[in-house]
Write a structure and sequence with these properties.
By secondary structure, this protein is α+β, with helices and mostly antiparallel strands. It is built from 8 helices and 4 strands; from the N terminus they run βααβααβαβααα.
Length: 255
Amino acid sequence: MVGDGCSKFFLLGMAHVEDASEAFRRMEELRTALLADPYFKGVPSMQPEAKKTAVCFHAKNDVPEVRREVFQLLPQLRVKVRVAVWNKLRFALGFQAHAKSGLQLRFNGNDIYDSLVKELFHNQLHEAETNTITFARRGKSARVQALAKAITHAKEVFRKHYGGSEDRPCEVLTSSPSECVGLQLIDYYLWACQRWFERGEDRFYRLVELQFDPALDVASDNTAKSDPALKEIRTIHVEEAPKRERPSSELGSDL
């Protein structure tokens, strides 16, 4: 969706968690300590019945003080992040131009999601002997087969561009953030990026920028060769991200 009140960008990210057990332990220790802190006693999102921070971290639901604690912990964890950014407005304008020219294009949200998956993973699956990839479960459908197909396509793209015939095993799973710490982690990195791209507010990203690849968006225009509807999946480098000066009075209002 594009328009008033809607986001201008769609972001999809991957977090390579070197030691998931250690990351889970550190995140749970922090969450347990915060839940036991009398300061948060009356905070609605911290109550068990709310099923928010009492269950797992989620940047949108967590109060500013909790988010600050999580952002301070993230750089201590061995995590590397890649994020693909899709400009929805630019795509909408391109789609309208195609429609006016008589070219019929059909796609849905899953098409965009799966194409971004291919671009994110196409040069990431050859280093480890095996890969376990956990996607966030979206809605009622796990879509494991479709996601596994996207990963297979990503491998094919890598072999086509770089050669070689190795096919490292990949296990594709779906889960929820409360069950998978990696999903909690990538949620926070994506939230930081979203604040930057939507509001021009980069202070959250700057706290964790060393854990990102140099380019926020690893998707490329090559996607458009196979599907014109996805032409606006493109590379947006860090220095190209939107910038907007925020009044000092805004700082701290929604940390």
